[in-house]
Each structure stands twice: as C-alpha cells, then as structure tokens.
UniProtKB/TrEMBL annotation:
Record-annotated N-acetyltransferase domain positions: 1-130
UniProt organism field: Pseudomonas maumuensis
Lineage: superkingdom: Bacteria
Official protein name in the record: GNAT family N-acetyltransferase
PROSITE patterns, per database record: GNAT
InterPro entries (alphabetical): GNAT_dom
Length: 149
C-alpha cells in the first residue's frame, strides 16, 4: 500500500476535490470559502472542507472512498487539518454517526456560534442532525473523558 499523505489543497486545485466527490457519487461539495483538505495514497482517497467561522471552523464534506474506509483515513485527515488550530471545530451529523465522530474526539454540543446555530435549526426542519464540537483540549485527551471538553 502507498503511504498516506494529508494536505491542504491550494485553491487553484479545488476542482480535484469536486471531481473526487462526483467520481464516488457523493453529494459533498468543496465549499468555495473554506479550506479543502485531501488524503492521498497516490490518488485522492478522502477529502473534507473546513470553513472559517467565528471562534473556529465548520467541518463539512468529509468523505472517504468506500474501498478505503476502515483504515483511519478520516481520523488522519481530520487530525492533519485541525491540529494547527487552537480554535474549536464544529460539524453537523446524523445521530447514527455520533459514535464515529466521538472516536475522532468530537462531542455533542448545543453551544454553537450564531451562524451555525441558525443553519442547524434550518437543517433540522427536514433532517435529523446533531451538532458536535472538537476543541483542541479534547483532541489531546482520551475519548470518553468528560473533562476533556
């Protein structure tokens, strides 16, 4: 297996992430105002977006190619993207995905920056979603430690 690298895409290469999402039939999109990150093992095998918001970042578009799942690609990609930030990272997910994100050091939250709170309220009108946050302190603490938030 080729070594895995996780890097930020230059804005001029955003189309590569869009192509990766389309190639796998994902509805994910590379947000124009955010940072795009990719995991590569020769080719792109995972991607995600981090959009700057008040107090941190909003993680969207996290997707790993189906045949690469179960190899900690998402974990390595998220860690590479948020490790340099001292701010929080929020995401919205279906409740069934909460255990997956908890393994990546995210915890459920009801405290969100206003732009995310209003967006979540809109999304929840038609979808079952929860908000989760990863603070830098929780990223370095053991999962399940209630003092890590």
């Amino acid at each position: 297996m080729l070594p895995l690298t996780c890097t930020r895409l230059p804005p001029s290469q955003r189309r590569l992430l869009e192509h990766f999402y389309r190639q796998h039939g994902s509805r994910m999109r590379a947000a124009g105002e955010g940072e795009q990150w990719v995991a590569r093992a020769g080719e792109i095998v995972g991607g995600m977006n981090l959009t700057p918001i008040e107090g941190g970042h909003w993680l969207t578009g996290l997707f790993v190619a189906p045949h690469w799942r179960g190899r900690q690609i998402a974990s390595r990609l998220v860690d590479a993207a948020v490790v340099e930030s001292s701010a929080a990272t929020w995401l919205f997910c279906h409740p069934d995905l909460a255990p997956f994100y908890q393994r990546l050091a995210f915890v459920p939250t009801t405290t969100l920056p206003q732009p995310l709170a209003s967006r979540l309220a809109r999304y929840q009108r038609s979808k079952a979603l929860i908000a989760m946050v990863r603070s830098q302190s929780s990223a370095t603490s053991s999962p399940g430690n209630s003092t890590s938030v």
